[in-house]
């Protein structure tokens, strides 16, 4: 098919070197190629990331080209073979961010090479919103750059505006207003990540982020992995703030984007899909609490104890994806000593709880009728996977823009309750139990949250309807994005 279709132009995509950013960008590439075959897409990144992408794409029906940008981490004061943020210290993460500038010249050469081979420049670049310098490269070559934010619109705006304006530094109050949000909207100091709370514009994080954010805000448009009907307020605010087109083309569910590849996330699952589904099949509808903090985050040792106590006290069935607590290798082996004495055994014997090590088939669990609620760090991908299956959430945000996601889920959407924030908080089993009870209630608040989550799931399904007479909002947004990319460059 692809060979016989006339290609109308080339798109060069540049991901941030972090697993949580590469996968969504790949998912977007696939989504674009699903909607039209007129583009050639090249993903350009560092050698090891290309290797990972190659294996993820090995069984892909889409033709995505991969292009290696030379990079050697030791030349940037990083350990050998360091090409993603995983397992790095904060200082190393800053070094890695800075080192991305070394990709600027190779990217320029790649674009020139494509221009030479094809007789014209690529149509545009699509870059991660934290790689503002790609916008510079594109502009200097006379092509457009579009930013991808793999977060929702509300979370993206909060994250970028707080970094760009540091509003918490301008008040002594714990609550403050964030530019871009309505005047009565308040954020709280405890919703800021430690680095951000301390940032003053001159610290290493600010120096690293602020110029990139400023450049990305001058690109030609933004793509958000979200749905128009999911966060109308967030999208309106983001558009007003950026004064740019923002295309809501989601939900792009990265784990389903990797379907067909042998190990979907490259990480081995701690449980087989069959065993997991078998366990769930024995449970009642909406009765299971699913607990996971994603592959990049974990909670503190004392929080882990409290969570286990709370789950046990609640008497509810649960699946918990366990990872070593803060201070230990998150991908390391999980030790029983991190849980109350005899906990795993009791849960196994009573069939109340299934502990899964490392990674579970999340999308299958969330789409199973037995799942009642998702206790989550509320990373955006998890939020999308939960809501697209009509599953309400218990929020426990840990990093990045997660606290803002939870704020929206609670205040704007009414589909979540926040249990606690960050790894620094102290919680007890009783609080965990109480929150689970609220959300699992068959009446009152729990019932309302479930209804809202189901309503949102139906909006999300409609958004991706391709039927001509009732094209969904995300399909129309993708059409418009394609049209914009194809329209003559106005630069
Ligand atoms: C990276 O650079 C170091 C030091 O400059 C060198 O020893 C090493 O061989 C390089 N690695 C690769 C893969 O080129």
Automatic annotation (TrEMBL):
Q: Which residue range or ranges hold the Glycosyltransferase N-terminal domain?
A: 11-252
Q: Which UniProt keywords apply?
A: Glycosyltransferase, Transferase
This protein is called what? Glycosyltransferase
What are the EC numbers? 2.4.1.-
Xref: InterPro entries: Glyco_transf_N, UDP_glucos_trans, UDP_glycos_trans_CS
Protein source organism? Vigna angularis var. angularis
Judging by the UniProt lineage, the source's domain of life is Eukaryota
Name the protein family. Answer: Belongs to the UDP-glycosyltransferase family.
Transmembrane intervals: none
Q: Which CDD domains match?
A: GT1_Gtf-like (cd03784)
């Amino acid at each position: 098919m692809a060979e016989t279709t006339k290609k109308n132009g080339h798109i060069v995509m540049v991901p941030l070197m972090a697993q949580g950013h590469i996968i969504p960008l790949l998912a977007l590439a696939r989504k674009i190629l699903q909607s039209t075959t007129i583009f050639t897409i090249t993903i350009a990144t560092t050698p090891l990331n290309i290797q990972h992408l190659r294996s993820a794409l090995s069984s892909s029906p889409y033709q995505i080209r991969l292009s290696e940008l030379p990079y050697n981490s030791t030349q940037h004061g990083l350990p050998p073979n360091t090409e993603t943020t995983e397992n790095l210290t904060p200082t190393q993460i800053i070094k890695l961010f800075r080192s991305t500038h070394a990709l600027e010249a190779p990217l320029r050469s790649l674009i020139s090479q494509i221009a030479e081979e094809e007789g014209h420049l690529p149509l545009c670049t699509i870059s991660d919103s934290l790689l503002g310098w790609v916008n510079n490269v594109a502009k200097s070559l006379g092509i457009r750059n579009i930013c991808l934010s793999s977060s929702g619109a509300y979370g993206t705006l909060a994250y970028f505006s707080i970094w760009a304006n540091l509003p918490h530094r301008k008040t002594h109050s714990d609550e403050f207003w964030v530019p871009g949000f309505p005047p009565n909207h308040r954020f709280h100091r405890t919703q800021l990540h430690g680095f951000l709370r301390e940032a003053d514009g001159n610290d290493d994080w600010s120096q690293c982020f602020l110029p990139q954010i400023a450049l990305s805000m001058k690109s030609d448009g933004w793509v958000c992995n979200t749905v128009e009907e999911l966060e109308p307020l967030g999208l309106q605010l983001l558009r007003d703030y950026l004064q740019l087109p923002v295309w809501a083309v989601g939900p792009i569910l990265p784990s389903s984007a990797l379907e067909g590849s042998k190990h979907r996330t490259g990480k081995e699952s701690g449980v087989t899909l069959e065993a997991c589904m078998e366990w769930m099949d024995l449970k009642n509808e909406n009765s299971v609490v699913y607990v996971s903090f994603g592959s990049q985050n974990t909670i503190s040792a004392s929080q882990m104890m409290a969570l286990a106590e709370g789950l046990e006290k609640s008497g509810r069935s649960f699946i918990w994806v366990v990872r070593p607590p803060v201070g230990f290798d998150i991908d390391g082996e999980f030790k029983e000593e991190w849980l109350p004495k005899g906990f795993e055994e009791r849960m196994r014997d009573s069939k109340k709880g299934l502990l899964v090590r490392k990674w579970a088939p999340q999308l299958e669990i969330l789409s199973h009728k037995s799942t009642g609620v998702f206790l989550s760090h509320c990373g955006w991908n998890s939020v999308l996977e939960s809501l697209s299956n009509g599953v309400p959430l218990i929020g426990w945000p840990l990093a990045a823009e997660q606290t803002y996601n939870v704020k929206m889920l609670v205040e704007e959407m009414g589909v979540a309750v926040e249990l606690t924030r960050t790894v620094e908080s102290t919680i007890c089993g009783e609080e965990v139990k109480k929150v689970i009870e609220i959300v699992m209630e068959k009446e009152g608040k729990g019932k309302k949250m479930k209804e809202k989550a189901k309503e949102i799931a139906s909006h999300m399904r409609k958004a991706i309807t391709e039927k001509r007479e009732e094209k969904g909002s995300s399909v129309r947004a993708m059409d418009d994005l394609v049209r914009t990319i194809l329209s003559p460059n106005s630069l």
